[in-house]
Write a structure and sequence with these properties.
single chain, 252 residues, alpha/beta, TIM Barrel, 8-stranded parallel β-barrel, 8 strands, binds 1,3-dihydroxyacetonephosphate
Length: 252
């Protein structure tokens, strides 16, 4: 059975104090409940080490939102995969559309990041997704297939087994406009078939594919009921316990 996951992407939100409170409150809110998915929280880099002490033995696991495409050295302002691993981080979001659009991250650069993350036993949560113009042109599958192929398909099947994918249609991110359940399922099934073509169906069946893009308490259950949707990567709704907890509980 592949993992079911609800991952929070805080993006550039929360001071340290606010972040510590949010994670502590989330842990308290889940206390005594049966939780049927893995919970990952991805705060800004600077909070990771502090949060690691809070989450050390609990159900919440931590991820970063990015890492460098270089191993170490004179790269001012960068944070390496080795540094993330050294503070007890398990996951790293790579290829988020905001990184691609605002910071010029390319498929080739992301390929390097993925390799470095895997070398340091970090599981990439690798984001893919088309912009609105690409969906309107009907080329969303080609776009997503190219993102996967150019950044991930040099990996061995064993390495690929550590990848979590997140399909995030860019037009649905932060817009309140969610992909319909059918649109999500269709793309997730296509992504799984693309993985199966390359690595075989056993690997494809084990790969968790998350949906991201205005996922919230109102639509999570319907989205997660789809056979190829294994959870969510949540932005806005992850910033408060009241909005995140119902998404976690959608896996009842
Ligand atoms: P929203 O949930 O705010 O649309 O953000 C989704 C996202 O980008 C998660 O990585």
């Amino acid at each position: 059975m592949r993992e079911k996951i609800v991952a929070s992407n805080w993006k550039m939100n929360k001071t340290l104090y606010e972040g510590l409170n949010l994670v502590r409150d989330l842990q308290m809110a889940m206390n005594g409940k049966t939780i049927n998915c893995n919970i990952i929280v991805c705060p800004p880099f600077i909070h990771l080490a502090s949060l690691a002490t809070l989450t050390f033995s609990g159900i919440v696991r931590l991820g970063a939102q990015n890492c460098s495409d270089k191993a170490s050295g004179a790269y001012t302002g960068e944070v390496s995969a080795a540094m993330l691993a050294s503070v007890g981080i398990h996951y790293v979001i790579l290829g988020h559309s905001e990184r691609r659009a605002y910071y010029g991250e390319t498929n080739a650069m992301l390929k390097e990041k993925v390799k470095l993350a895997l070398n340091h036993v970090l599981q990439p949560i690798f984001c893919i997704g088309e912009v609105l113009a690409e969906r309107e042109a009907g080329i969303q599958k080609e776009v997503v297939e190219k993102q996967i192929r150019e950044s991930l398909f040099d990996l061995s099947a064993k390495e690929f087994g550590n990848i979590v994918l997140a399909y995030e249609p860019v037009w649905a991110i932060g817009t309140g406009k969610t992909a319909t359940s059918e649109q999500a399922q269709e793309m997730h099934a296509f992504i799984r078939a693309t993985i199966a073509d390359k690595y075989g169906s056993a690997v494809a069946e084990e790969t968790s594919i998350l949906y991201g893009g205005s996922c919230n308490a109102g639509n999570a259950k319907e989205l997660f009921t789809n056979p190829d949707v294994d959870g969510g990567l949540i932005g806005g709704a992850s910033l408060a316990v009241e909005t995140l907890l119902p998404i976690i509980e959608a896996f009842s």
